Amino acid sequence: MSLPKKMKDHAAKHAEATVPHPEAARKQAAQGKLLARERVTAILDRDSFHEYDLFVEHKCSDFGMAKKQLPGDGVITGTGTILGHPVAIFAQDFTVAGGSLGLAHARKITKIMDHAIKLGIPLIGINDSGGARIQEGVNSLAGYGEIFYRNTLASGVIPQISIILGPCAGGAVYSPALTDFVFVVDNISKMFITGPEVIKTVLGEEISMEDLGGARVQAEMTGNAHFYAQSEAECFEQVKRLVTYIPWNNRKKADAFSVIPSRSEVSLESIIPAESNKPYDVRDVIKAVCDGSDFMEVQALWAANIVVGFARMDGRTVGMIANQPAVLAGVLDVDSSDKAARFIRFCDAFNIPLVTFVDLPGYLPGIDQEHAGVIRHGAKLLYAYSEATVPKITVILRKAYGGGYIAMCSRHLGADFVFAWPCAEIAVMGPEGAANIIFKGEIAAAADPEAFRKEKVKEYTEKFASPYVAAANGHVDAVIAPHQTRDFLLHALEISEEKQELRPQRKHGVPPF
Ligand code: HXC
């Protein structure tokens, strides 16, 4: 065959493998879902997608599979760029056998994962799959296992992003759970280990797929998802934005962005109420100090009593962690400890400095919390901050009481710089509680117990509920006016650029789980 004929033959083969089955495509569109190929091109820079393994075929002959041709074996794999950043990508194609995962399908994914690890580029997975391909039996389970193994090898080496754009059951949810960020879309994403049918059969409980594992449930109740969007288009914009904040791999730093739009006009002095128990939105503080008030919040809907996310300071990415006084007074609890700890470990693995804003009354008391294991969950936060060797800068805004003071990146957990605003209150507990305990006997014996109690609360407030005792002991490096915060942070970040902190050799730590 001449080359022109071979090229014609190739074009026909290519079309056969890439043109979607009309009925399956219609069904996908009716559900408001894009096709796998459309998704890949929507995320990547125009014309940057380079596809591999298009002609891979399955080798299964059971249950009528010998006669079944599955284009690309139900998954598209390749490399491309997002805003110029290289990425490896795979997208499961629900129009081909429900995107189900057979061995060839899995091996296409593991091959692109191996590339991503070797090349040191982020991996993006678009998941839209009925799970293990039933006809392939144990081979499809083997395929999942090989993916989980690589997810784990890649953890902390390259960023891994999962986008859930369809049903993801069983094995299909464990790979995303092993990755760094999970994106979900309203009405489209569903994640569960066992679906409604199994739950009904085994337990007699009835629940819809949406109520069991829909996007909102995963973003708000379980914390399995990190980003929630109303549409696929919005989700892809979120993915692109995230990629600009993170480095290609753990040997690099995230690219700096030299164009810095104007900052928030809100004055920091006006954000915090005069009364120390009044709430405010700590995101206003973050937006007032970072470049262009541009803050990308992670897990915004879950455990909202702590705020975590990415921002830039003089163009460089920083990870922001802040207690949120507007939700549960910003207390630490099981979920907020988990949320912050995971975020800190991501930032540390990928050379992103940490800036922590502190304003919390402590850990949430309660039987539920104790029985939910707040001890081991809270310990994750202590571990994550202590383990992190990236620059760590802490700003105590207002309350920093007891265990909360220590846990929120105090000097004692290795903070490089600790600053405090003049309204900071650093003490074992709030003045009311402290006075009630210390002077219990005297209050009871006083002629006017309430007047005596108030006097002691005032005395305690003046003596301890300030930043100056901590500053006098060197636990706080500088007491700064709120409007000096950005300047102090920028300087601290700049001089920490080459920070090195060596640790004793070990295979790996054993963090609380
Ligand atoms: C083979 C599958 C499949 C699967 C779907 N299909 N799931 N083929 N193996 N797991 C096929 C269907 O037969 C159908 O083929 C096509 O994909 C579209 O599926 P529909 O059912 O028509 O689509 P829909 O009504 O939208 O329902 C989607 C669905 C449902 C909810 C995902 O298909 C479903 O429940 N599938 C099974 C899910 C599951 O139990 N998977 C195993 C999980 S266990 P045709 O030819 O008719 O178009 C697991 C083990 C791993 O993953 C554990 C590792 C730790």
Automatic annotation (TrEMBL):
Residues forming coiled coils: none
UniProt xrefs under Gene3D superfamilies: 2-enoyl-CoA Hydratase, Chain A, domain 1
Occurrences of domain CoA carboxyltransferase C-terminal (ranges): 263-500
Domain of life the protein comes from: Bacteria
SUPFAM superfamilies linked: ClpP/crotonase
Region of interest (Disordered), ranges: 1-30
CoA carboxyltransferase N-terminal domain: residues covered: 1-258
Classification via PANTHER family: PROPIONYL-COA CARBOXYLASE BETA CHAIN, PROPIONYL-COA CARBOXYLASE BETA CHAIN, MITOCHONDRIAL
Stated name of the protein: Propionyl-CoA carboxylase subunit beta
